[in-house]
Amino acid sequence: MGAIVLATGYDVFDPSVIPEYGYGRIDNVVTALEFERLLSASGPTAGHLDRPSELALRAEIADLEKGLHRANRQLGKLEEKHAKKTSEFMDEFKTGKSGDDADFERWASLAEKAAALKEELAPLKKKEVAAHTAKKLAFIQCVGSRDFRFNRFCSSYCCMHSVKEAMIAHEHDNETTSSIFCMDLRAVGRGFEEYKLRGGKSANIEYVRGRVAEITEDDSHNPIVWYESTTARRVEHETFDMVVLATACVPSVSTPKLAELMGLELDENGFFKTDPLAPLDTSRPGIFVCGCAQGPMDIPESVAQASSAAARAAEVVSMAGEVAVGGS
Q1: Which end of the chain, N or C, is less packed with Cβ atoms under 10 Å?
Q2: What is the CATH number of domain 4-9+251-327?
Q3: Whole-Å CA distances, 84 to 71, 102, 298
């Protein structure tokens, strides 16, 4: 007799199914994991909080400049071949004095293309000069969790994950301010409450009690958060540089198939069902779970559970070995 430990992990809730939050439609609305990647020194922005709208702007400018460089290079060859500047050629071409050389139609087309690219680049360059890193952040809690439309359960770690990200953002730039919108902030864990309070005191974090109803966008690609303040008892709105969605932790997509294969029960939330008094034990003896296979939890708790599950599996295997030796 052996033992099995299931550590299937979890999937991240897709916030695009909540259209009012604008994920996938508003550039500067990102998920918590995407934001953490932006904070990473090895990430796409080397740890600088460049807004996705500005990154898209730079990519567009780079593409246009590449096309302009290519057109100018081809124009240069034609100018050298015919010993004439493009401006002189275009004056002649428009008046019909250029002749009917086979190159002339192509030359005129390239000149018009280069002029159009320059005209398109000019306003984008002005926008690039005005671009800035994100300094005013909003974190939206319970995106897909504690929501009867999607998942009724609390995802457990999201609150402290947002506090941590807001504190790291402030460490990167001390001018950064963060507003964390929540129904209530769940700081369950050793030292978590103190960490939350420290964020408010030393990292410019404001905890806003209110449920966000909608996120819109202004002409400068700044997200506007509309929410009902449960303390002021009125609908309010505020403009931010970037909005971070704390998305729910949901069961891995492979969980139902694996449960069917192993003859295991799932709980009402789709995670592997365990014994209330033995939280590592599934509905079949000898099969154990750890981490988010059982339900949402953070890294320290997952690591502790993994050690416990390994010990439970070793206990089963050891007992089986003793029975085998005794039987022989």
Answers
A1: C
A2: 3.50.50.60
A3: 16, 16, 69
